[in-house]
Write the structure tokens for this entry.
Amino acid sequence: MASNRPVRVRFAPSPTGMLHIGGARTALFNWAFARSCGGKFILRIEDTDTARNTPESLQSILDSLRWLGLDWDEGPDCGGDFGSYYQSERLPSYQAAIARGLQEDWLYRCFASAEEIEVQRTLAREAKCNWRFDEASRNLNQADAAARAAAGDPFVLRFRMPMAEDITFQDHIRGTVTFASQGIEDWVAVRGNAMPTYNLVCALDDAAMEISHVIRGEEHLVNTPKQILIFRALGVPEPEFAHVPLILGKDGKKLSKRTGDTALGDYIRAGYAADALFNFLCLLGFSIDDKTEIFTREELLEAFTLKRISKSGAIFDTDKLAWMCGDYIRRMSLPELVSAVLPYCIEAGLVAQDASADEALQNMVGAFQERFHLYSEFPQQAAGLFGALPDWDDQARKALAGEGAALATSQLADILEKANWPPEDFKALVVTVAEDLEVGLGKVMKPVRAALTGTLGGPELERILQILGRERVLRRLRELPTAARS
Ligand code: GLU
């Protein structure tokens, strides 16, 4: 299977929507393979479906790939020796191949109408066999076919499949794969509107761009025998293939909206850390060894081999992803984390654009670093610490409306007002209040936390005092929600 060709791999998205999680993982494996063996990673835009392509989709695919930290050596934005990297600009090269296919007879004109073929398909189904071709068209000689075409008879071009031949290839992940040609119909290579179809142009481009390895999703396995026959017809070397397993939701079915977002953009917007998502995507079918889950890009590239990609479907476990993101967040340096959460704080209207150097924000992020998994969770969790008074949530309001809560908070405020700032032993002050009121410590702690933060969870109160500062602490302990004051 190993060949001596220079390694050239490609990711070939169609710009008809956002980058799917599966596409992102395919891109990542191609990138990792190229980077781990000194090869080239090529980005090719498969934009022949003019009705469904959009410039926004192309932009979002490029943005998503860059967000993941992938870079490419040749592509639509950076060019290269094998351009154009837009299929829509490669039509002349396809025309030349199509003319050759007709001349060499591996492509032929099929004049049967869609309705006629439907009838033939039904008959084949009734006879319990596959429809393979329209016999009259397949057997028409080239001169007659050309004459009919010249006279204006509508036609499509079909690929002439061998009558009975095994098409076998070695897949890096799946081992030996064989398709019998009897199971594959003479497929449409050029539509009636003269547009060549995916299987034809994909193989033509892989040949022209000297792609050495085609690494793509398992859903394309059925296309591989068709594309291999194109390489053989052209007389060019066949690339090696690696079909990566499907990504499944936690329910074991193909990943869908039901079991998790399927577009990378949704994860970007939700505030997942790019390095964590990168690491997580690697684990969808690949492993460095049997135990390592967290690894750097360098460690990945050291270890990457197609052999370690598994055959069986990979489960997209959103809980594990959240855990992994939390783990990455805990390892980040504070300045790094502050700049990562800043856009979410700005969006939530909590800070100004230039707040990254703000010491209070840094303190807050530091206090919450252990507690959030997504960047977007930080402003949600810490919202109560911004501004003069918090927006008390229901639980906090309930705690503050409880018996003795208002007294406990105001008594603590009185003690704090007279104490040094920051208090040397805050806990001891709270104990004093509890003893004085003859209640358990919790009866003071809970309303105090509620008053100070607007919620019941969060970092230890000593850190909260430091973040809020003396004036805000006193004000918050005294100015409770209306229900608590009455
Ligand atoms: N444009 C195809 C897709 O997005 C590429 C398939 C391939 O890698 O051959 O699925």
The CA atoms of residues 334 and 366 lie 7 Å apart. Residues 21-36 form the longest helix (16 residues).
